[in-house]
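Progress report, Aim 2. The chain analyzed during this reporting quarter is listed below.
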Amino acid sequence: MKIINGKKIADRILADLKEEIEKKELKSCLAIILVGDDPASLLYIQKKEQAAQKIGIEIRKYSLSKQTSEKEILEIIDSLNQDKQINGILVQLPLPKNISADRIIRAINPTKDVDGFTLKSKFDSPFILSIQQALKETKENLKGKRIIALVNSDVFGKALYRFFLKHESIRVEYITQDNKGKTKQADVLITALGQPNLIKSSMIKDGAILIDGGISKIGGKTVGDIDRESVKEKAEWLAPVPGGLGPLTVTFLLKNVVLAASFQ
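Predicted structure tokens for the chain:
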């Protein structure tokens, strides 16, 4: 089984971004809004800050308490929408249950929605871009292959379907549970469930390409949806957790910020 090294690919893309920023003398700034102190969210933001610092993107962080009202968050977003120095706005999810994530995300100006959450966003989802990049690294011809995504929401499944049809002219089937052993029929299996080590060797096809987009914590250890040890003798490729899509997603988020700075 060959491993898709997301960290190595991300470093290569970040080096190109750094060069672009310096060459064009771009002033890029990403505003990050964090509500509460969820440990996973704090870690994700730390990684984004570290990567941004490496290439010269400024981070303006708004750390808010769990008690912050939806109205206050919307006021901050409105202010950031009007701030010409801010190129991108990121609201770290999940939000506290008393706050509507949908209303918050919809309030972001589409020209600054660098996470690609809304249909009107000017940017593709960094997570979906990372899936595309991971598949490109295999250099496999995907035309005519059966690509199945096992996902935790119809919204994400539809976004994945639309993206690959538009940009790669290939169809991605999506399912929310493994009905009738569909995963075993996949030449390419993409997962985004957050169910630790769910996918075993018995659930995949010989020579399958596996893209693991699920993240869970077990005893302080980060694991994915795919049981790496179980599938290693059967799969052809694996984008693992950790070290696969994670670094790539951060990188494509920052690439969107640079893109935003170039046309604002």
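Residues 25-109 form a domain with the Rossmann fold fold (CATH 3.40.50.10860). The chain has two domains: 25-109, 126-246. These observations will guide the mutagenesis work planned for the next reporting period.
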